[in-house]
Fold this protein.
Amino acid sequence: MDDIKKLPTLISERIILRPINIIDCADMYDYAKRENVGPMAGWEPHQSIEETKNIIKTMQDEMLTETNIGVFSIVYKKSMKMIGTVGLHRLNKQRKTAELGYILNPDYWGKGLMVEAVTKIIPWFFDELGLYRLECGHFDINQQSKRVIEKCGFTLEGTFRKKIVLKDESRCDLHHYSILKEEYENNQLPWQKR
Ligand SMILES: CC(C)(COP(=O)(O)OP(=O)(O)OC[C@H]1O[C@@H](n2cnc3c(N)ncnc32)[C@H](O)[C@@H]1OP(=O)(O)O)[C@@H](O)C(=O)NCCC(=O)NCCS
């Protein structure tokens, strides 16, 4: 983990994953401004492209720090448009754990692209970074994210009851999952069995 100076570029069938860059700001703003995107992951829609630019700068500053791995942009090969992000956060080097988060432009939902992205990151996480436990969570109202988590092979560990306060002041449960290194190494994840 300490040897890594920069996030790599990872390539799969339909997408390229590479470190987020300021050149992504227009493509990111295109989806980050929409009402049905950020609030499902716990953040407010972006109000301006300047805000998006500042958020990307912060993501770059927080790349490969003591407590953070960083954010990959998802680039759709066909158009070379940046269509979302996959991030690895809350790194704990001593416990060898980190948390996964992801966002996709709604114009690209329903094509299995996030499962493609996450299943490209998982081998890098265990094999190259040598980490032990990948964590992930979703709001109870976010059934799309639940499906991504299930298809990637995460195991439900528990539910934080009514932990999340939504914009309309209502509360919802937060479900928490993980994948362990041995599950990946023993090919126990659904996408490894194909
Ligand atoms: C969660 C998210 C990344 C899913 O990505 P995706 O690549 O579209 O995922 P999939 O194509 O595997 O689809 C997931 C499920 O959503 C359903 N779905 C697809 N498009 C949909 C749409 N427009 N509306 C509602 N459901 C939809 C699919 O039927 C699929 O379920 P299935 O596998 O049982 O058929 C995407 O919806 C997103 O970015 N949401 C906003 C941000 C967010 O929620 N981030 C995660 C926070 S935990």
In short: The pocket of coenzyme A is lined by residues 37, 40-41, 102-104, 109-115, 138, 142, 144-145, 147-148 (CB under 6 Å). Residues 10-192 form a domain with the Aminopeptidase fold (CATH 3.40.630.30). The beta strands are 10-11, 15-19, 70-76, 81-92, 97-104, 133-139, 155-165, 171-180. The first strand starts at residue 10 and ends at 11.
